[in-house]
Amino acid sequence: MLNIARIRREPGVVKEGLRNRGEDPAVIDQVLAVDERWREALAQLETLRAERNRVSKEIGQMKNPAAREARIAEMRAVGERIAELEARVREAEARRRELLLSIPNVPHPSVVVGPDESHNVVVREWGEPREFDFEPVPHWDLGPELGILDFERGVKLSGSRFYILWGAGARLERALIAWMLDVHTREHGYTEVYPPFVVKQDCLVGAGQLPKFEDNLYHDAEDDIWLVPTAEVPLTNLHREEILPPGSLPRKYVAYTPCFRRERMSAGRDVRGIKRGHQFDKVEMYQFTAPESSYDALEEMVEHALEICRRLEIPHRLVEICTGDLGFTVAKTYDIEMWAPGCEEWLEVSSLSNCEDFQARRAGIRYRPQKRAKPRFVHTLNGSGLALPRLMIAILENYQRADGSVVVPEALRPWMGGREVIEGR
Fold first, then answer.
1. Beta-bridge partners for 289
2. Cβ atoms 377, 357 nearer than 8 A
3. Which active-site residues does the annotation give?
């Protein structure tokens, strides 16, 4: 959520940021109009409350009963006016919050201005795409032939965009998750968290998923709990409504969760294979930092995700996301994409973002720079470290052999029980 003080102070800058995102900046004028009503009503309310307090003391000292009754009658009218103004303040405050919750974050000044993903910028690339002496097979054919990927039974159990992993396929998924968690905790300094896979509505509001993305979320109406669309949601809310003590930042967490999304926004896209499903696994990195160090933390997280890619020895590239392609909550984002030779496309395996204080304001997450100092909002950062199943696609398609088998990347073999090759049944 944007800082209302910033909107008052520099409305032109905020409007320009929204314009660069492709959003209508007129909402800022609406916010300012409601904010003005709120401030006017609040000023009147505080004046009348002060008057009531002053007169109440005066009444207590009055000796003349008739004069006292007259003043009490006057204060009844003042009380009614106070009640009116309190209702007005609450109404304006609620409307202002409703509007603020609908406004996306303002892009950082360094973000490239562009209307859509065609204006994203490739920052650097690693590795050369492998040259095959046979026609590489896409994973939707390769997996079933190996007996490790089953679309028909996934549909039978749960419907479209679900699948089953069998045997070495399931082991490979589990190995990737365990290996990535171990690298991030043992080498990159993250604390592992195992959060619930369902959350309360307030958590989704705090993380910026609600109200914007309600149609894309799974909700159990009876218990009013929501399946997590990403581990970012519970990790954001670990410190909701807390003031973190001096010296406790940065806080670095990593978590594995399945992620659940309706994918209504992508209807008709990527219908083949496992690129886009309603349930998928992800290892998520998360940091709470002081504002002055958050962009250093973003670069650090990018390197942590790139290190995973390098160890898998799969060609990949780092992409800076332009203003028109930014996510709702973020001020700056990098994507990491791996080359998939069977699909013949670059697949996003990680998205790494600095949300600055946008989520912290929604979730009430603050810290004290020093003892007795005024609390400040933290900056929050999140990034896939990495996301499956696109990582699985990249491994299967890059490490396939002419006989239909798949070599297990060397880095993963200890987590695969020493297995070096996945062969057909």
1. 379
2. yes
3. 261, 276, 348, 351, 390
CA neighbor of 122 nearest in space, from 304, 312, 339, 342: 339
Which tokens in the block code for residue 311? 């160890």
- Strand bridging mode 332-340 / 345-354: antiparallel
Q: Residue 378 has what DSSP assignment?
A: P
How far apart CA 99 and CA 78 sit, in angstroms, is: 31
Q: How many residues does the chain have?
A: 425
- pLDDT tens string, the chain, 425 residues long: the values are 999 999 999 999 999 999 999 999 999 999 999 999 999 999 999 998 888 888 777 777 776 777 767 777 777 888 888 999 999 999 999 999 999 999 999 999 999 999 999 999 999 999 999 999 999 999 999 999 999 999 999 999 999 999 999 999 999 999 999 999 999 999 999 999 999 999 999 999 999 999 999 999 999 999 999 999 999 999 999 999 999 999 999 999 999 999 999 976 555 556 689 999 999 999 999 999 999 999 999 999 999 999 999 999 999 999 999 999 999 999 999 999 999 999 999 999 999 999 999 999 999 999 999 999 999 999 999 999 999 999 999 999 999 999 999 999 999 999 999 999 999 86
d(CA 51, CA 78): 9
Closest CA relative to residue 212, chosen from 323, 96, 328: 328
Amino acid (one-letter) located at 5:
A
Cβ atoms 252, 382 nearer than 8 A: no
- The DSSP-derived string for 110-166 is TSPP-SSGGG-EEEEEES-PPPPSS-PPPHHHHHHHHTSEEHHHHHHHH-TT--EE-
The pairs formed by 90-93 with CB atoms below 8 angstroms and a separation of 24 or more are 92/34, 92/35, 92/37, 92/38, 92/41, 93/38
Q: Which long-range contacts link 292-296 to residues 24+ away (Cβ below 8 Å)?
A: 293/249, 293/250, 294/354, 294/356, 294/379, 294/381, 295/108, 295/332, 295/354
Contacts of 250 (CB under 8 A, 6+ apart): 287, 288, 289, 290, 293, 297
Query: How many Cβ atoms from other residues are within 10 Å of residue 420's Cβ?
Result: 11
The residue whose two tokens read 């892009």 is 107
Mapped onto helix, strand or coil, the DSSP state of residue 315 is coil
Q: Are the beta carbons of 208 and 237 closer than 8 angstroms?
A: no
CA distance 259 to 160: 16
